[in-house]
């Protein structure tokens, strides 16, 4: 095991180890968190992602949860299902790529001013490699907003995610960033809505060194 990746391989095992391309072959035009949690994601994007900048929506789908009243110079989506990506009205362009199969991002160094990963970090089997790549393609001090809730596709979430509670998920994602290197000013946030029975919403925010 590489010294800069301190996680045991079994941490990233999943109940369903069949190719992810099969699982995501058919589009899912649904939201994976409720309206209150979506609003919390949008508010985080409003606070951290720079207006007018180039934004990377990693593990994207048919909706990006970006604030409607904020204009970005460019929004690029990378996800698993082309029909979902094609239907996303906020994307300037998109790439279909399975990060668990190929974690190297097809972008230039310092290409983006900010990035988001929304309710998807729990599916990555090579998160350290992906986050190391994100540090490469983002400009210095650019923010990365990683959000998650307590919902997931259980068969595709990694074993470590299943073993931890919400606080543990925050710590795990922070450890990913620390292991990847190139990140600082980490913030671990609970942005759960106050509404009764709303989905919780947590975030880890980091900036490129």
UniProtKB/TrEMBL annotation:
| Positions of the Methyltransferase type domain | 73-145
Q: What keywords does the record list, in alphabetical order? A: Methyltransferase, Transferase
Q: Which InterPro entries match?
A: Methyltransf_11 (IPR013216), SAM-dependent_MTases_sf (IPR029063)
Record keywords: Secreted included?
Answer: no
Q: Could you provide one GO biological process annotation from this protein's UniProt record? A: methylation
One GO MF term on file is: methyltransferase activity
| Source species | Hymenobacter citatus
User: One Pfam family for this entry, by name?
Assistant: Methyltransf_11
Q: Can you say what this protein is called?
A: Methyltransferase domain-containing protein
């Amino acid at each position: 095991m590489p010294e800069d990746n301190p996680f045991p391989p079994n941490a990233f095992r999943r109940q369903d180890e069949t190719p992810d391309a099969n699982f995501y072959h058919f589009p899912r035009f649904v939201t994976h968190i409720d309206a209150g949690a979506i609003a919390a994601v949008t508010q985080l994007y409003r606070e951290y992602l720079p207006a007018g900048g180039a934004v990377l929506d990693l593990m994207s789908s048919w909706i990006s949860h970006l604030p409607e009243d904020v204009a970005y110079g460019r929004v690029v989506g990378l996800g698993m299902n082309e029909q979902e990506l094609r239907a996303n009205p906020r994307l300037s362009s998109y790439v279909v790529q399975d990060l668990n199969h190929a974690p190297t991002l097809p972008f230039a160094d310092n290409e983006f001013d900010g990035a988001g990963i929304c309710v998807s970090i729990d599916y990555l089997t090579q998160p350290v490699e992906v986050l190391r790549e994100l540090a490469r393609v983002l400009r210095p001090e650019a923010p990365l907003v990683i959000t998650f809730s307590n919902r997931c596709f259980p068969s595709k979430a990694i074993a470590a995610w299943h073993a931890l509670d919400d606080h543990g998920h925050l710590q795990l994602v922070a450890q990913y960033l620390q292991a990847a290197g190139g990140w600082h000013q980490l913030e671990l946030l609970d942005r759960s809505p106050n509404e009764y029975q709303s989905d919780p919403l947590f975030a880890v925010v980091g900036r490129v060194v």
